Amino acid sequence: MNRLGETAKQIREARGLSQKRAADLLDISPVHLCNVEKGKALPSIELAARYRDVFDADLFVVTWCLHGDVNALPAPVRDAAQSLASAFRSQLGLFDRGEVHAESKDAKESSI
Question: Are 108 and 93 in contact (CB under 8 A)?
Fold first, then answer.
């Protein structure tokens, strides 16, 4: 499983969604979502944009926050990158063990 697929699965599972329901929300087939989550297909830019719209989470940024190596960055940007990762983890409820704990957009809207 590639890191993007792993993150896509974590976001979906954290929201308690089946692959079928998440695929419906993302307007893709369940087979394609399964392939993305298993690392057999990479998400397109359009699909990444739908993740942002549907789940309020940027797939690439969340992946970097969960799996990125801040120490590999040049020294001048390391502190800024660590601050960004920390803020993003806090905003989405991400924890070091790689779990995503954030309310789904539907849950937020239904509680309003």
Answer: no
**Residue 31: how many other CB atoms lie within 10 Å:** 12
Domains in the chain: boundaries: 3-98
Give the distance, in angstroms, between the CA of residue 12 and the centroid of all CA atoms in the same chain. Answer: 8
In degrees to the nearest 10, what's the CA dihedral of 35, 38, 41, 42? Answer: 130
- In this prediction the pTM is 0.66
Per-residue pLDDT reduced to its tens digit, 56-102 = 888 887 787 777 777 777 877 778 877 877 776 676 665 544 443 33
CATH fold of 3-98 = 434 Repressor (Amino-terminal Domain) (1.10.260)
DSSP string, 46-80: HHHHHHHHHHS--HHHHHHHHH--GGGS-HHHHHH
